[in-house]
Amino acid sequence: MDLVSYFQTIVPLSPTAQDALEALITTRSYRKNDIIQEIGSTCRTLYIVKSGCARIFYWKDGNDITEHFSFPQELIVRAESLFTGKPTSKGIQAITDTELYAIDSLALFKLYDQHHDIERLFRILFEQEYVNTIKRIESLQFHTAKERYLELLKSTQYVQHIPLKYIASYLGITQVSLSRIRADLS
Amino acid sequence: MDLVSYFQTIVPLSPTAQDALEALITTRSYRKNDIIQEIGSTCRTLYIVKSGCARIFYWKDGNDITEHFSFPQELIVRAESLFTGKPTSKGIQAITDTELYAIDSLALFKLYDQHHDIERLFRILFEQEYVNTIKRIESLQFHTAKERYLELLKSTQYVQHIPLKYIASYLGITQVSLSRIRADLS
DNA sequence: GAAAACATTTTACAAATGATAAATAATCAG
DNA sequence: CTGATTATTTATCATTTGTAAAATGTTTTC
To answer: pTM for the complete prediction?
Structure first.
């Protein structure tokens, strides 16, 4: 499905809003492991996954930490930079070969002024992200690592394409620990 | 400071928007430990703390878990219910004697249609909440319990009024474990 | 296809945290 | 004020997770 059509399922958009938004959307392709946005940069582009999957990651004490995975139709944005205009110590990387829809953030924010419905659309999209993030906190706060792993497995078939080391840090545990959990399960 | 004046520091509001918003804001007082919103209810009111502090909490396996603390000038809202219209297994409780600004959510959403600037104001307020939540994930994902406790201590002086059992579950550890951490620090 | 690079599992031991119960300390209601 | 209730600390032991290093498995590159 076309991206603007998908947006229409969330908020009805006026024809001019549709056109204005359409004009901003480009498609970009990345190979497995490509860096999509560099660590330390400022977010100036919103992405939505068209195909493949990608992750938000950062370095902490010499370890590569995965903070977030995105799969088709999902946003992938370093929100703490997008909303503050400040650089972030996080980056975005393609996990598999990946196609993304890209939207320039400054151009989008200009559209907010002219098109109330576009601002509303992205308000709602980010509200949904916010709710997902709250659920993630529940999970990190009071589920065991094993429970969190099983939850992730259920969430999407794409998990099988993701290297374990990425999954381990996403779950907040070491690779060794995840390996033990997997050994226990079989 | 008056709440609408505070809002103006975030987004300029037209005089009619100011009046419309002002008309929605009421003040409510609660005594320590009062339940502000019941577990299982649907969120129909946004609150902003005027004085005191409050928490969002839920029950998990017979344990009372604190998910969030709010202090003066901060929002306290069960977002997963506000944005979905569905009931939530979370509640809101006053930790100390507390005064809240209250805004009816359905009335607010109606104002969104008439006042682009009001929708923008709350878009930005919730974007800020979203960013805070992302920071919380970083903290839960890769800081030790001791680091998370020290971080919380730094964040606000109000922490001293909060019972340890609430703090422990907020940090994702048991009360006993938090007690040990405190013993280590002195 | 073989060497090199990278990913995952296993092992052994240390440290952190959980569970339970009991001991103290602090707060509240009459 | 005093007993009752609630909150916090301490102790013990079990479990989970971390760290480091080595072994094994898989993928990539030439």
So the answer is: 0.94
